[in-house]
Write a structure and sequence with these properties.
heterodimer, A: mainly alpha, globular, B: mainly alpha, 4% strand, flat
Chain lengths: 198, 249
């Protein structure tokens, strides 16, 4: 199937409103995390949800649009991380199509792989554009690695490899349990329902 | 006076070329002028109170980012001579230079994007994308996201309050709060899936998914795009200047 037809197939039926919800969820989920004082970003839950239920291209669209809109609403640095969210959407969709969201332990494994992949893709961006400083708590780790003699790129990569797999594994597990709890009658409206139900 | 969206995009391109090709000594005055321009000149001024708030918040973030980056790199990047000593810490000239280069580049890149978006309504940008040939489905996603973004914070607050009233442990230990996160997210996702299905059926009934050829309807006179030519010429000038400067080194 051509990419164009694949995208068209993924964006049919309830997909368009659901992708929009996924984007909005990415942008607002921080509100819940802050209210509950949870020290995780979890800002790609919407992308993961969309990629599992609709497919990798829908995941790519949800992730990149979320970052563009975050840039438009006051956080312009998110624009530079579009390649990272595209990888998250594509890889999650790929894993979901392979049936990795049918078992919790496969989700844990997938989340770890995803975290490593996200760290590898985001490291050059964080190092070159941001000089390793993201104005977040994780900067302390970067400074620690730099003070031990590593260059900026390696330090940012080590920091990413330390924190990203945890964040992505939690996100994957959350999405897994969310979808497990939803009635199949609803899930069956989406083309990726078979990715979740064993 | 209003500047058309393509002209503003060419300004962003110009700012990005400057950010990557020119040294920080050129770009720092550019950032300051852009910040002044964005708070005084109508075409670049944030149009809504929330956009204005976001713009000034970003200026604050940029300043603190620059200061942190310069200090950290002055301390950790031991290149060049020592500029000054503070207690047991030595600050190096090479580190300061690197910190300034990176922070000025990032702030210019980000500020140009922010000025572009805050000086217009996002709906106008979506409409422009549609007129430029972006598929209808993608434009609908953008417009529906704007709708969800208005609804979702209230819905989150409602679900949060309801779950708290039912005894969800929102103020307990870390693990219990993690469970509460799930308890809030679960009804939110369920209701949104139901809504998506309903909206999907409504779109289908209206023949939304029939194949349509989307054609660009941007047929404006090129004479209207004076700023586009100005910024493209300036961009070209910066590129040529950088190449000549690089060759003469």
């Amino acid at each position: 199937m051509k990419i164009r037809d694949q995208v068209r197939a993924e964006l049919s039926g309830p997909a368009i409103p659901f992708v929009a919800f996924g984007i909005a969820l990415n942008l607002t989920v921080g509100q819940i995390a802050i209210a509950l004082k949870i020290p995780l970003y979890l800002d790609s839950i919407g992308t993961i949800l969309v990629a599992v239920l609709l497919g990798p291209y829908a995941g790519i669209i949800a992730g990149s649009f979320a970052n563009i809109m975050a840039a438009a609403f006051g956080n312009p640095t998110m624009m530079f991380f579009i390649p990272v969210v595209m990888v998250i959407g594509a890889f999650t969709g790929f894993l979901a199509n392979k049936g990795w969201f049918k078992r919790w332990y496969l989700c844990v494994l997938g989340g770890m792989f995803q975290g490593v992949l996200a760290a590898i893709v985001s490291a050059p961006i964080s190092a070159y554009l941001f000089g390793g400083t993201m104005m977040a708590g994780t900067d302390a780790l970067v400074y620690f690695f730099r003070s031990t003699g590593h260059n900026i790129l390696t330090s940012v990569l080590y920091q990413g490899l330390t924190s990203d797999p945890v964040d992505k594994t939690v996100s994957y597990l959350l999405v897994f349990f969310l979808l497990k709890n939803l009635p199949f009658r609803l899930l069956s409206k989406f083309r990726g329902a078979a990715n979740v139900v064993s | 006076m209003q500047i058309p969206i393509p002209d503003k995009l060419s300004f962003v391109l110009f700012a990005w070329i400057c950010a990557f090709l020119l040294p920080w000594q050129f770009n720092l005055p550019f950032i300051i002028s852009l910040a002044v321009l964005a708070s005084s000149w109508r075409p670049f001024r944030p149009i809504t109170p929330s956009a204005r708030k976001a713009f000034f918040r970003f200026l604050g973030y940029s300043t603190s980012f620059g200061v942190v980056l310069v200090i950290v790199n002055g301390l950790l990047l031991r290149e060049g001579s020592i500029v000054f000593k503070a207690a047991i810490f030595d600050f190096y000239c090479g580190g300061f230079e690197y910190g300034l280069t990176v922070s000025v580049r990032l702030v210019l890149l980000s500020l140009s994007i922010l000025v572009f978006f805050t000086s217009m309504r996002f709906q106008d940008f979506a409409e422009y994308l549609q007129s430029a040939g972006l598929p209808q489905s993608l434009v609908s996603i953008i417009l529906l996201t704007l709708f969800f973004l208005e609804q979702l914070p209230n819905r989150i607050t409602q679900v949060f309050t309801a779950q708290e009233a039912r005894g969800a442990p929102v103020r307990a230990g870390m693990f219990a709060r993690g469970r509460s996160f799930f308890l809030v997210l679960s009804p939110l996702v369920l209701s949104s899936i139901v809504e998506s299905v309903e909206r999907g059926i409504a779109l289908e009934l209206r023949g939304y998914y029939q194949r349509r050829q989307v054609k660009s309807t941007v047929h404006e006179e090129m004479a209207n795009h004076v700023w586009l030519y100005v910024f493209l010429t300036l961009s070209l000038f910066v590129v040529i200047f950088s190449i000549v400067h690089w060759l003469s080194r």
